[in-house]
TrEMBL record, chain A:
Family: Belongs to the GcvH family.
Protein name: Glycine cleavage system H protein
InterPro entries: 2-oxoA_DH_lipoyl-BS, Biotin_lipoyl, GCV_H, GCV_H/Fam206, GCV_H_sub, Single_hybrid_motif
Statement: the UniProt record of this protein carries the keyword Secreted: no
Key words of the record: Lipoyl
A Pfam family of this chain: GCV_H
Length: 128, 361
């Protein structure tokens, strides 16, 4: 069973969001990292880039395959996890903390309501 | 549900993540593909390759039939030796690549790919006209690959006296039959080791003995990164019915020495040899990123395409095979998500004895 922290919000494409004031911290879920296998490369957006919710914002690549990362909410990138450049395996080992991907200054926190709760996300992966 | 090897339960017990592979439920990894890869490069890894199709050929025309069917010449090796070869269609395209074990003048064993099983068996049957041979698939057999720098010594400690002696003496690509086992010094990882073909019902006990002694189960994921590092082609990716050995870096497996040996595809190959044709080369990505199959390669002489690509766990950078215009050398640009990244054109293998081994082209 993969871990799905109750306090986070989720996107159907397996990103999670942790809200910290007006900033959303974004990563991929334990379920997603497990399905992808060992990550070997993470391509992150640039600080200052602006995305609408649903835009492609990065790519994670495992030995097996590449997978797009989507911006779960609209806004501007304020910080990226530079440690992943040398240690992409942080996403495998610690997907909800050390393996975070990027932070977005949210343009509209109303978008969070459209994201899945932990229970809803659990239902989605149960039905996959 | 797919077909299952006799080791299906052993895979689940070892924590395998199972995937469909050519109609078989096979382990892709047992937790970490990278760790399994390194275990094979540094110690001893264990693969279940029972999904491979084993075919026995017997009868008084076995030699003549196989010299017609196969692009490599079985006469190049003696009994007790194996040979890597392709079988070709009349256009010189690769029907499949395989290992043939020369058991006796009138007996040989072929191990072909599982994804091409039906096509291969049909093709082999269709080529028997005029030859007194009997072709028998052996679904009763399982196959284990024990691979790594320490694999042979490891295996010797765990098998009967006869098998131990055989393992000590086997040359590269040699094999021995010990009771119901065929033990061969072959593999698909670039490491030393052995492949053991044995009755399916005996496979679980051997698997248990080897894993208890410390062999690390390794899945198809690691098998793919290991073979790519070792410069070994994968049928369906790097060559197929429309690609000749000249175009797949497999010219070394084509035996043209005997002018009287008229193997299937020979005329087409001889005609193509005179002309410029695309070639398969290795690529090493200079910066960060991961090469994958079917990426466009921009060269001075036109476009090419990657056929296999991955992240090399041993080198820590991306590697690929690519079909490129004749004469491509130096560096090329690979298109990855609308960016062009520089890659060096090289001659594989990428890794040998655990070390960087490729040469620039």
């Amino acid at each position: 069973m993969s871990e799905i922290p109750a306090e986070l919000r989720y996107r159907q494409s397996h990103e999670w969001v942790r809200v910290d004031g007006d900033v959303a911290v974004v990563g991929i879920t334990d379920h997603a990292q497990d399905a992808m296998g060992d990550l070997v490369y993470v391509e992150l957006p640039d600080v200052g880039q602006v995305f609408a919710a649903g835009d492609e914002a990065g790519v994670v690549e495992s030995v097996k395959a590449a997978s797009d990362i989507y911006a779960p909410v609209s806004g501007e990138i304020t910080e990226i996890n530079e440690a992943l450049d040398d240690e992409p395996e942080l996403v495998n080992n610690d997907p909800y903390a050390g393996g975070w991907l990027f932070k977005i200054k949210m343009a509209d926190d109303g978008e969070l309501k459209e994201m899945l709760t932990a229970d809803q996300y659990q239902e989605q992966i149960d039905s996959e | 549900m797919g077909q299952r090897t006799p080791l299906y339960d052993a895979h689940l017990a070892a924590g395998a993540k199972m995937v469909d592979f050519g109609g078989w439920d096979m382990p892709i990894h047992y937790g970490s593909q990278l760790e399994e890869h390194h275990a094979v490069r540094q110690g001893v890894g264990l693969f279940d390759v029972s999904h491979m199709t084993v075919v026995d050929v017997a009868g008084k025309d076995t030699r003549a039939y196989l010299r017609r069917l196969l692009a490599n010449d079985l006469d190049k090796v003696g009994e007790g030796r194996a040979l890597y070869t392709c079988m070709l269609n009349e256009r010189g395209g690769v029907v499949d690549d395989l290992i043939v074990y020369k058991i006796a003048a009138d007996q040989a064993r072929l191990v072909v790919n599982c994804a091409t099983r039906d096509k291969d068996l049909d093709w082999m049957e269709s080529q028997t006209g005029g030859f007194a041979v009997d072709i028998q698939e052996r679904p009763d057999l399982a196959m284990l690959a024990v691979q790594g720098p320490k694999a042979r010594a490891f295996l010797q400690d765990l098998v009967c006296d006869d098998a131990r002696a055989a393992l000590g003496e086997l040359p590269f690509f040699g094999f021995a039959q010990v009771g119901s086992w065929l033990i061969a010094r072959t593999g698909y990882t670039g490491e030393d080791g052995a492949e053991i073909i044995l009755p399916g019902e005996k496979a679980p006990a051997l698997w248990q003995r080897l894993t208890d002694a410390g062999a690390r189960p390794a899945g198809l994921g690691a098998r793919d990164t290991l073979r790519l590092e070792a410069g070994l082609n994968l049928y369906g990716n790097d060559m197929d019915d429309g690609v000749t050995p000249w175009e797949a870096n497999l010219g070394w497996t084509v035996a043209l020495d005997d002018p009287d040996r008229d193997f299937v595809g020979r005329a087409a190959l001889e005609a193509q040899k005179q002309k410029d044709h695309p070639v398969l080369r290795g690529l090493v990505l200079e910066g960060k990123g991961v090469l994958r199959p079917h990426q466009t390669v921009h060269t001075a002489g036109g476009e090419g395409e990657t056929t296999s690509g991955t992240f090399s766990p041993t080198l820590g950078q991306a590697i690929a095979f690519a079909r490129l215009p004749a004469g491509t050398t130096g560096t090329v640009e690979v298109e990855i998500r609308n960016k062009r990244l520089v890659a060096q054109v090289v001659k594989p293998p990428f890794v040998k004895k655990g070390q960087r081994a490729y040469k620039p082209v």
